Amino acid sequence: MWNGTRGIHRLGGAVVPEGNQKKERKMLQFLNNHFYDVEALRGYLLQREMSKVHLKNRSFTWLEEQHGPYSAGAFFILKQGGAVKFRDKEWIRPDKYGHFSPEFWNFREVPVEAVDASDCEINYEGLDNLLLLKELQSLSLQRCPHVDDWCLSRLYPLADSLQELSLAGCPRVSERGLACLHHLQNLRRLDISDLPAVSNPGLTQILVEEMLPNCQVVGVDWAEGLKLGPEEQPQDTASPVPA
Length: 243
Known about the structure:
Elements: H1 4-12, H2 18-56, H3 62-80, E1 83-86, E2 91-92, E3 112-116, H4 127-130, E4 138-140, H5 149-152, E5 164-166, H6 175-179, E6 189-191, H7 201-211, E7 216-218
Parallel strand pairs: 3-4, 4-5, 5-6, 6-7
Antiparallel strand pairs: 1-2, 1-3
């Protein structure tokens, strides 16, 4: 007759075969190596990407001594993939391969009046090159992934000349950065559309308009973020009027 207690005892004290132990250790080692490699790869790719951004934003101020501030600033923007317009000249843009006409080196004494840096990887450090353009009137920083509140705090040297500024689609720009624009009293048009870091677009637009009374602030519905939810709507407590 089978002894149930004895059988249970034997099962409880059973030893895992050596082959299974090897498979288990091999699987654990594989998982450990796999996830370590993934994290290491992610870290490497992130570091590589940041190094590329840093390289793109290195200082070109040394060019100022040879070619003047306008050409040096224009070179930085063109290398970023943006476009520049010298006064009374046509726009200069890179082609799909990143090549652009070298004619701008001849415009040493001609101010740059407009810059389209949309989708460029300009960051805080790279602004050293942009701020060489002291007579800049129009600046587009649309969808620049590295333009943040700290960057906006550095635009005050352009206060005397800048009239148009677009920050549309900049993911790192918040209310704090927009508050730094109070220096730019000559602004006539400011685009603050599609700023995900701005928590209350409608209220922000009102505050910016008060801060820059001579500027047309576009891109936001003034009522956005100000509308009351159903539970906040005022209730009509008056007695119904008899028919």
